[in-house]
């Protein structure tokens, strides 16, 4: 789907998004390309809250460390295998002459590409996963148009509501949203593959997640667990929500890290339970610096709101999936009000 009632991360100046979708399994990856002021990369930050992350170049984003700019962020399916797609993003950036300048030769550079992966190997043939060519292709098709949502890119094999087993789960996806205050925009791109349910941030009612034993309604995972229903044993790291929060306001590395943390407030509003032992929830932040400064507390509120809206968009845009041994309905398949 390409409907964007809540805006898109590409509303942020200097941000482009590209998806690569592999329908054979299904799986895929998504790339966020960042062009900062004066042709440089963007200031980057990261906040990892889940207990089972799969990431690359996150230590580099620590405010105490040297490198100050990021040229792209990769979000990928395929679990740890999907980190291979970042090499393709680096190759594409090098072809464009974009990266951290090293040496004294023209065009000699090292692109900085942090990445995070989600676990979708239980959806179809696990031997098919994003590789370097997938990352390169995602860059080739990237644009500043609102990106597709739902069963595309890193959200292609995403699922939600697995606390009581995959047999009761539903289809997740990737979603985007943006919030604008004055001349400043904060946007989010979130691939939702959570152990928990996705809920309406205002009402708290589930939109997609664990279903009742007959599969006809939403179970409300937290309520069911608190009532004594026993969760099934879950493979650690077999879930994970990953994403990017971007703004065109200028930020330091320390404040970019704080903005990523504020984005997790949005995850907590839209996913229940969140940041579990079986999730590797990771959010990156990018600041392109194309807009004037804005009060940082306001920016953080905008980040939380954009992330929460993007999570909702991810499952509302998703389409149901039927494989040989797995049925994953989407939120639209159950219809409104189908919760216990």
Structural features, described:
The chain is an alpha+beta fold. Helix content is 21%, strand content 25%. The strands form six sheets. A five-stranded mixed β-sheet has the order 1-2-5-8-4, with helices on one face. It has a five-stranded mixed β-sheet with strand order 3-17-15-12-11. Strands 14-13-16 form a three-stranded antiparallel β-sheet. It is globular. The mean pLDDT is 94.
Largest sheet descriptor: 5 strands, mixed
The tally of helices reads 6
Provide the low-confidence segments as ranges: none
Number of structurally distinct domains: 1
CATH superfamily: L-amino peptidase D-ALA esterase/amidase
Tell me the number of strands. 19
SSE sequence, one letter per element: EEEEEHEEEHEEEEEEHEHEEHEEH
Mean pLDDT: 94
CATH class: Alpha Beta
CATH topology (level 3) name: L-amino peptidase D-ALA esterase/amidase
Strand content: 15-25%
Whole-angstrom Rg: 19 Å
Strand order of the largest sheet: 1-2-5-8-4
Q: What share of the residues lie within helices?
A: 10-25%
- Described by the principal axes of the CA atoms, the overall outline is globular
Question: How does the SSE layout of this entry go?
Answer:
Layout: E1 15-22, E2 27-34, E3 43-48, E4 55-56, E5 72-76, H1 85-95, E6 100-101, E7 109-110, E8 115-117, H2 132-140, E9 159-160, E10 170-171, E11 173-181, E12 184-192, E13 197-199, E14 206-208, H3 221-226, E15 242-247, H4 253-270, E16 271-272, E17 282-287, H5 296-317, E18 321-323, E19 326-328, H6 331-334
Parallel strand pairs: 5-8, 15-17
Antiparallel strand pairs: 1-2, 2-5, 3-17, 4-8, 6-7, 9-10, 11-12, 12-15, 13-14, 13-16, 18-19
Helix pairs in contact: 1-2, 4-5
């Amino acid at each position: 789907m390409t409907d964007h009632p809540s805006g898109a991360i590409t509303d942020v100046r200097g941000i482009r998004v590209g998806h690569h979708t592999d329908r054979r399994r299904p799986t895929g990856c998504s790339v966020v390309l960042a062009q900062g002021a004066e042709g440089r990369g963007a200031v980057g930050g990261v906040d990892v809250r889940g207990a089972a992350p799969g990431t690359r170049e996150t230590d580099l984003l620590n405010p105490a460390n040297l490198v100050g700019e990021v040229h792209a962020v990769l979000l990928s399916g395929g679990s740890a295998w999907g980190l291979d797609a970042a090499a393709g993003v680096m190759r594409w950036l090098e072809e464009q002459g974009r990266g951290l300048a090293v040496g004294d030769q023209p065009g000699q550079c090292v692109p900085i590409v942090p990445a995070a992966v989600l676990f979708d190997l239980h959806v179809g043939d696990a031997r098919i996963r994003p590789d370097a060519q997938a990352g390169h292709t995602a860059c080739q098709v990237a644009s500043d148009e609102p990106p597709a949502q739902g069963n595309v890119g890193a959200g292609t094999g995403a699922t939600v509501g697995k606390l009581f087993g995959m047999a009761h789960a539903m289809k997740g996806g990737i979603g985007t949203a943006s919030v604008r205050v004055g001349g400043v925009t904060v946007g989010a791109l979130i691939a939702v593959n959570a152990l928990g349910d996705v809920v309406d941030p205002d009402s708290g009612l589930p939109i997609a997640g664990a279903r009742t034993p007959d599969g006809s309604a939403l179970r409300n995972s937290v309520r069911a667990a608190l009532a004594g229903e026993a969760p099934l044993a879950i493979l650690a790291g077999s879930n994970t929500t990953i994403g990017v929060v971007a703004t065109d306001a200028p930020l330091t590395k320390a404040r970019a890290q704080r903005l990523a943390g504020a984005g997790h407030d949005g995850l907590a509003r839209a996913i229940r339970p969140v940041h579990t032992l079986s999730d590797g929830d990771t959010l990156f932040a990018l600041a392109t610096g194309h807009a004037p400064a804005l009060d940082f507390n306001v920016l953080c509120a905008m980040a939380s709101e954009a992330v929460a809206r993007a999570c909702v968009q991810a499952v509302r845009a998703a389409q149901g999936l039927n494989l040989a041994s797995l049925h994953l309905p989407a939120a639209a398949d159950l219809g409104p009000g189908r919760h216990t």
